[in-house]
Amino acid sequence: MVWPFPPKTRKQIARIEITGAIAADTRKRVLKALEEVEEKKYPALLLRIDSPGGTVGDSQEIYYALKKLQKKTKIIASFGNISASGGVYIGMGAQHIVANPGTITGSIGVILRGNNLERLLEKVGVSFKVIKSGPYKDILSFDRELTEAEEKILQDMIDISYGQFVKTVAEARNLEVETVKTFADGRIFTGEQAKELGVVDRLGTEEDARIWAAELAGLDPEKAECRTIEEPRPLVSRLLSRSQLSSPMGRTLNWVEFELATAGQPLWLYRP
Fold first, then answer.
1. Measured CA distances, 189 to 180, 200, 230 (Å)
2. Count of beta carbons in the 10 Å neighbourhood of residue 261
3. For the residues 92-101, what does the mean pLDDT come to?
4. Among candidates 144, 141, 186, which has minimal Cα distance to 162?
5. Could you tell me the CATH number of the domain that includes residue 89?
6. Strand, helix or coil at 269?
7. Residue 64: per-residue pLDDT
8. Domain limits at 164?
9. How far apart are CA 118 and CA 98, in angstroms?
10. What Rg value do the Cα atoms of the chain yield, rounded?
């Protein structure tokens, strides 16, 4: 029989990393990597998550792609230093989850933030004339306070998003919705606590997760290779991004960029 791809991939474990804040670039990269896992028929996937979460829509698209891949591939999620909020949501797309005892996880919930610069603008003498088609067209505008009606509209939207999050966790972890709600109040907890709550299956390292993935796929853990799939980038670009992320200024700039890009959007995000 002639395989469409080298049979070597059938004896390998694919590995995908999700690090940092989840946004459009993360979604595009991960979805492309998941397509490769499916096309090359990897029997198992090790999903390494070290993320505080991010945008709702991008997290949901990654989750749905993982659920689809579950039909063909064994998926084990490994929670790293932090896997919170949207990071947890994505982890629900795996059949099994491993976390370190000290992993920071949880923060199940939704947050939406806007900036109100009304007082500052008054001090510098700046005002805006707004022509709009409806009373809520400029909701979350930075030059005025929210009205009570606007707050209710946004709260209803947040509640619906929260309900989606809770339902997904309940279904993925075989828990009752009301049980999930007892700890899905935005609080963070350790990997050890997550196991007690039923959010993760086992405590252990990424290597423990790799061994489990190999076993589920019927592979010899000592012989099965683990291949990290990532979008090819020029060497200079990789080196620059690593140096930027390793510096406090680089991390600050990345967060500022993320905050500006997602202002006014509901987020599944833990931001200490």
1. 14, 12, 30
2. 12
3. 98
4. 186
5. 3.90.226.10
6. strand
7. 98
8. 7-269
9. 47
10. 21
Q: What are 176's two structure tokens?
A: 């009752």
Could you confirm whether 51 is annotated as catalytic? no
Residue 119: phi, psi to the nearest 5?
A: -65, -40
CA distance 62 to 39: 17
Centre a 10 Å sphere on the Cβ of residue 247 and count the other Cβ atoms it contains.
Answer: 10
Sign of CA dihedral 41, 216, 206, 86: positive
Residue whose structure tokens are 């979008």:
231
For β-strands 53-55 and 267-269, DSSP reports them as antiparallel
Rounded to 5°, the CA angle 42-48-54 comes to 120
Interacting residues of 150 by C-beta distance below 8 A, sequence separation 6+? 136, 139, 140
Would you say residue 261 lies in a domain? Answer: yes
Residue at 2 is within a domain: no
DSSP alpha helix (H) spans, 84-147:
86-91, 118-124
Which entry of 8, 28, 132, 137 is annotated as an active-site residue?
Answer: 137
Identify the weakest region by mean pLDDT among 60-74, 189-203, 230-244: 230-244
For strands 12-19 and 44-51, give the pairing.
parallel
The answer to whether 14 and 32 are in contact (CB under 8 A) is: no
Residue 11 among the catalytic residues: no
The per-residue pLDDT for range 174-205, each reduced to its tens digit, is: 999 999 999 999 999 999 999 999 999 999 99
Q: Which of 85, 107, 141, 161 is catalytic?
A: 85
Considering its fold, how many domains does the chain have in total?
Answer: 1
Residue 76's closest CA among 16, 11, 166? 16
Residue type present at position 53: G
